[in-house]
Amino acid sequence: MLGGFNIKGYKFTVILLGILVVLSVISLFIGVTDIRLTDILKGDTEQLQMLVISRIPRLLAILCTGIGMSVAGLIMQKLCMNKFVSPSTGATISSAQLGILFALLYLPNSTIFGRAVFAFSTAILGTWIFVYFIQKIQFKDVVMVPLVGIMFGNVIGGITNYLAFKYEMTQALSSWLVGNFSLVLKGRYELVYMIIPLVIIAFIFANHFNIVGMGKNFSKNLGVNYNVMMFLGLSIASMITASIVVVVGSISYIGLIVPNVVAMFKGDKIRGTLVDTAVFGALFVLICDMIGRSLIAPYELPIELIVGVLGSIIFVGLLFYRLQYGNKSISLRWFSQGTSCAQPVMKDGETK
Fold it and tell me: Which neighbouring-strand residues pair with 332?
């Protein structure tokens, strides 16, 4: 205990942060162009420019993407009361792509911030419509809710593809259909910084989102405005997703996989899992990006491909886990009690 702060209770977070810092430094030196720390210290301007213009912006975009998509998925899962809802299964990503197409059609010379305005508007609208649909479903099956989102997202995607084909914008739109960090450079990625204040707002209202996730009547009894908090939470998740789609492109699975993995160890309360979800999300995307850069070097695989392969494997594992253990979470005594060995203990509900 240090000044009232229980260090043992945050071992899981500290270890994740330590691994993230180490891999972040290593990632700066992975790429087609060799960058050596000794040359930078000697004043090699060419390598220093490569580091400042390309590698550092890419790293920051990766970290913001992992944090943003994970937090957006966590918020949507809590508000929709379903573990399989995320920006990819809630039509948020498809709606943002439609907004980008509108920007290309009606404001072809718009800047990245101008396209972001369109993406924000359509992403928020599409997510609201999706939630409106699922609220009208009387008997909400666990699988039914994400299926509705997937079907609705496919409808929006079909409209997007039709308009892109009709107005010969398919090639122009293609760079936003598959997530890729290779085009991230200084001056073209700063929009993702918007994720930081949005995540902070999400942390401030975390307890309110947790109450809203328990139902409308429960929220009313505790004096929480259900509609306002639902509006705020969905808007935060939509704007985070749209800003990432505008800068990087579409990346699936992150908002679905990361919150579920963290919940297996930390429980379901947003306030208790938000930091771990953000850090693990950044770590997951960073590892996928390093694999994509190293697998067929000097060529690079899109981040969407690596995340899709790893995410699908993890998702299948989560399905088997849920079928066998339900909502039980895993408590690692080594993290929570500081013992010398890690022993999984199954508990009902949340872990302390």
Answer: 344
Q: Which two tokens stand for residue 10?
A: 């945050």
What mean pLDDT is reported for the chain?
83
Q: In order of start, what are the domains of the chain with their CATH numbers?
A: 8-347 (1.10.3470.10)
Say if pTM beats, i.e. exceeds, 0.90: no
Residue 4 dihedral angles phi and psi, to the nearest 5°: 85, 0
Give yes or no for a contact between 316 and 301, defined as CB atoms under 8 angstroms apart.
no
C-alpha–C-alpha distance, residues 338 and 177, integer Å = 45
26 SS3 class: helix
* Cβ(343)–Cβ(332) below 8 Å: yes
Q: 119 falls in which pLDDT band (50, 70, 90)?
A: very high
* Residue closest to 246 by CA, chosen among 127, 81, 98: 98
Residue 96, H or E segment: helix 92-106
C-alpha span between 282 and 68 (Å, rounded):
9
Structure tokens at 208: 């309110």
**Does residue 347 or residue 195 have the better pLDDT?**
195
Peptide bond into 298 cis (omega under 30): yes
d(CA 82, CA 148): 12
pLDDT at 347: 44
Model confidence over 206-258: pLDDT tens digits? 888 888 888 888 888 888 888 899 999 999 999 999 999 998 888 888 998 99
If 0-12 CB within 10 Å is exposed, 13-18 middle and 19+ buried, where does residue 128 land?
middle
